[in-house]
């Protein structure tokens, strides 16, 4: 699941989580514009999982970095991060420091204090290795770390100055989403202030995706043939028709910028900021696909003066327009008893039709059924000695 926007840029620090993701309740009808007897041309072209908000868990100091929890197992499941301290480790480290300072409040011999501190650090029976990683090495660091907490102490740039942000950051609040002025487009992106021609509308850090990873196979007839269908995220990616590399923008509201070849007032270009890795542009495609980090970025630039409240529009190009026209030609009529997938999933009496049943009683064209199952390693999970563990079967 990929949820674009500012929240996609928010990192995870177990000891400094200060925001949380909040989904906004909605109904599928809010984004599926269907009429009796037919599906609107835009139905199914947008995700129903929009409307996530990021809300604060505490008062946040100006210039602070935002951190959200990725879950308790996120670090544990990644070998390179398995030893990262968690919140309980930072809390334990804070208490150890407070106890030490309290017990040695009248001791002023720095060398003696350091020896006593070293004994604590080297006593593996006192705490585990993650808590050990959250403790400063030098006794001279203890007072400062006790004031701000060990989690923040080891991240001195947790709060950036406004001058630093103006010099090194990128403004992401020029856009806000709302109902588009383009028919069948759903949501659109609108200017929150006057944006002059040639000015930056929004930065767009890019996540690179292998297009082949988005392919879904669905049987279309009684034979074993299948046609290629792609996951919905494809609609929100930039790419070339002859390339298997897709670029998914992860900044705020840029995914809502719609197409108009006649009224476009913006363009995309490679960013000239330090966030752009220029060397990537000349490297082999497979090398970029294999990378586990981002390194490419677009800038969305105003091609004319944009007024407050005006919708920002891009020209997606001729290939996109051709694909849209082909899509319009392929529209089909549906029965009057059209049901959305939300209605089907929420109906406790609804029984999922088998593939055989769907030949005679198909769902609507934009509905797909999937089977989620678990499997066990027969050698390690099912068989214990010479006995079959039936609890391990699914």
Alpha-carbon distance between the two ends? 25 Å
Order of helices and strands: EEEEHHHHHHEEEEEEEEEHEEHHHHEE
Strand order of the largest sheet: 10-11-7-14-13
Protein structure class: alpha+beta
How does this structure look, described?
The protein contains eleven helices and 17 strands. The strands form seven sheets. A five-stranded antiparallel β-sheet has the order 10-11-7-14-13. It is α+β, with helices and mostly antiparallel strands and 394 residues long. It is globular and about 85 Å long. The longest helix is centred in the first third of the chain and has 17 residues, at 87-103.
Topology:
Blueprint: E1 19-23, E2 34-35, E3 38-39, E4 52-56, H1 87-103, H2 110-122, H3 129-133, H4 142-148, H5 150-153, H6 162-168, E5 175-179, E6 187-191, E7 200-210, E8 215-219, E9 226-230, E10 238-239, E11 245-249, E12 258-259, E13 266-270, H7 285-290, E14 296-302, E15 313-314, H8 318-329, H9 341-346, H10 355-360, H11 378-382, E16 383-384, E17 387-388
Parallel strand pairs: 12-15
Antiparallel strand pairs: 1-4, 2-3, 5-6, 7-11, 7-14, 8-9, 10-11, 13-14, 16-17
Helix pairs in contact: 1-4
Name the descriptors.
394 residues; alpha+beta; 5-stranded antiparallel β-sheet; 22% helix; globular; disordered C terminus
